[in-house]
C-alpha cells in the first residue's frame, strides 16, 4: 500500500511539472501565433479568418497551409491577403503576400508588412518519435468567438505514410492514387483539431520548437460533423518540409 502511494505521489509531481512546463511554453509561443484571412474593405464582415499560421525567420515570414491561402482575390472588391496579429480587441491586420507554396506538402510561406514579430524556433530533428508529447495553438473555429488562440495537447500516436483512410473503395479519388505511388511520412495525433486549426504549429511541449504543421483531420461522416462529432484523429506535416521551403528562399530559421 505504501508503495502505491509513493507511485501515486510521483505521478502527481510529474504531472504538475508537465502542466507548469506547458503553461510556460504557451506563454512563450502565443505572440508568434497568427490568423490567416482575407480583408474586404466594403465587406460585412470586412475580415474573414481562413485558418491559422505562425511566424518564422526574421519575424516577417509566416507559415501556414497551402489550402488556407485563397486561390483568388476579388480585385473589384479590393480584397487582400492578410495576417491577423494579436488577440481579442487588440488584434491588428497586416497585409501579406504569398512568397511560395507547396501543394504536395500543403504548405505556404507568406511575407508580411510592418515590424517583425516574435518568431518560433524550428526543431532540427527530421521526425519526432511516437509517444512524444506535443501541442498546437491556433483558431479552431475561426473568428466566431473572436481572435483568441486556443491550445490543444496530445501525443504523436503514429508516424505513417500520407494516406487518408476511406470508408469504402468508392471514396478513392485520383489525387489519393497519386499519393499512393509516392507517399511521404506524416504525424498522426491523438489530439482533436478543427477546420480553423489548419496551419497551426505543432510544437514540442518542453522546448516550444515547431515539429510540424497541422493540416487535416479524419472526417468520420461529413464535413459538417467535424465540429459536432470530431474523430479525434489529426494529421500534421513534419517540419523538415517547412525547412526545405524556407531554405529554397534563403530564409534563416
Overview of the molecule:
The protein has 253 residues and is an alpha+beta fold. The chain folds into two domains: 31-119, Trypsin-like serine proteases (Thrombin, subunit H), CATH 2.40.10.10; 133-247, Trypsin-like serine proteases (Thrombin, subunit H), CATH 2.40.10.10. It has helices at residues 2-29, 174-181, 225-228, 240-248; strands spanning 33-39, 47-56, 61-64, 80-85, 92-102, 107-112, 133-138, 150-161, 185-189, 201-204, 210-217, 234-238. The strands form two sheets. Strands 1-2-3-6-5-4 form a six-stranded antiparallel β-barrel. The chain has a six-stranded antiparallel barrel with strand order 7-8-9-12-11-10. The chain is globular, with a radius of gyration of 19 Å.
Short description:
The protein has 253 residues and is of the alpha+beta class.
Biggest sheet descriptor: 6 strands, antiparallel, barrel
Please list the strands of the largest sheet in the order they lie side by side: 1-2-3-6-5-4
Q: Fraction of residues in helices?
A: 10-25%
Question: Shape from CA axes?
Answer: globular
Under CATH, the topology of the largest domain can be stated as Thrombin, subunit H
Cα distance spanning the termini: 52 Å
Radius of gyration: 19 Å
Average pLDDT value?
Answer: 83
Low-pLDDT sequence parts: 4-15, 219-231
Number of domains: 2
Number of helices: 4
Number of strands: 12
What is the CATH architecture annotation of the largest domain? Beta Barrel
Strand content: 25-35%
**Strand-pairing-aware structural class:** alpha+beta
At the first level of CATH, the class of the largest domain is Mainly Beta
Spell the H/E element sequence. HEEEEEEEEHEEEHEH
The CATH superfamily of the largest domain is known as Trypsin-like serine proteases
